[in-house]
Amino acid sequence: MLIKICGISTPETMDAAVEAGATHVGLVNFEASPRHVTLEAAASLRARVPAGVKVVLLTVNMAPTDLSRAVDLVQPDVLQFHGRETPDWLAKLRETLECEIWKAVGLRDQGTLERCRQWIGKADRILFDAPAKALPGGNGEAFDWQLLANHDHKMDWGLAGGLGPDNVAEAIRLTAAPLVDTSSGVETAPGQKNPALIQSFCEAVRGA
Ligand SMILES: O=C(O)c1ccccc1NCC(=O)[C@H](O)[C@H](O)COP(=O)(O)O
To answer: Where is the N-(5'phosphoribosyl) anthranilate isomerase (PRAI) domain (predicted)?
Structure first.
């Protein structure tokens, strides 16, 4: 089971996520987010992460030149896109960059799920999240997990949106998600990650 702790912004919580057994750690580069880290700070946090744990850099509608600087500086294992990026652009990045390309999609209804087929062969993984609200992600809201129950997935995927230590086991049971992602659910306030909650989340996933 893959576990992503997203929106890490301090060395202490990065270390806590790694020690708790996260397989992926997320860094948000989006100024409107309470979890925003500059590319320089992201590079410094990235340097603490041991081989074997994948670093995910999140961007929203980043210009191609800025993206290339971000990749050079942070050297992420995964780029996660939360904006209006097109399938063709992501496919091109997938061909040219060495990192994995993930696309986050706000899952509103069955129609959204069907339109997600457009990412097959264009992205390495799709991350089903709650529909965007104030932020494109990290809003701490769950969507209707029943949409994914028994769904015939044609590409790698993950589940995000309002997951925390108390509900992640139920989410896994209902959806059989191979990867779960949390941000707000392991915080005591927006942007304030808590090591004990990170540990509880990882334990709840492993116990599911
Ligand atoms: O976390 C943010 O602030 C954020 C801002 C802009 C784009 C994406 C963002 N987060 C993306 C994530 O992968 C979150 O972990 C995911 O949306 C789940 O968040 P939450 O519901 O708070 O657990």
So the answer is: 3-203
Residues ≥6 apart with Cβ < 8 Å to 47: none
Select from 135, 157, 197, 205 the residue to mutate for testing ligand 1; criterion: most ligand atoms less than 8 Å from CB. 135
pTM of this prediction? 0.98
Atom of ligand 1 nearest to the CA of 164: 23
Measured CA to CA, the distance from residue 8 to residue 36 in angstroms comes to 9
Give the pLDDT band of residue 59 (cuts 50, 70, 90): very high
The answer to whether the CB of 82 is under 6 A from ligand 1 is yes
Strand partners, 192: 189
Mean pLDDT of 2-20: 98
Enumerate the domain spans of the chain: 2-207
- What letter represents residue 1's amino acid? M
Q: Find out if CATH 3.20.20.70 is the number for domain 2-207.
A: yes
